[in-house]
User: Fold this.
Amino acid sequence: MKIYVKNMACESCKIVVKDALNELGIPLIKVELGEIETKEDMTDDEKKKLNTKINKAGLELLEKRQGVLIEKIRKIAIDYVYNSDERPNIKFSVLLGQELNHNYTYLANFFSEVEATTIEQFMIALKIERIKELIIFGEDTIAQISHKLNYSSAAHLSTQFKKITGLTPSHFKALKEKRRITIQNI
Assistant:
């Protein structure tokens, strides 16, 4: 049985879900970002108990078709931004359409209606958080980060970063106490 999970965006989330499933004695096949696959169907009572356990970590089971599609879009977006250096250079709109077998315009309109933001704004927010992470780790230059995240130039990255955060990337790097926003809160 496949079950979708809202706000599941990191390895820690997968651990939380695995632990909750183990505590409830629910045999699983796999846990991926945004989805769980169990060996057998879960009862409504088991779903409620699982939902209660994972809610403590900000996660939530999804059963409505609408929520499932939104989570799939979010999952693909997160993977696109966080694993950008591991895949061929492909536009996000093309990738999303291919992965979900829908027209990108339909997906974009659907996402905007449900989330009250555009896919483009969501992608920019994800990229900004990824940039903050990469700046804090300090392993890459701004030029390397811009290339890694498919910006046309370091100047474009810097302009967008300043527009969203109010700081230049170099000023942000100097402010160690500036905290990142978790993906779930974007």
Q: What stands out?
A: The CA atoms of residues 50 and 151 lie 40 Å apart. The chain has nine helices and four strands. The first strand starts at residue 2 and ends at 6.
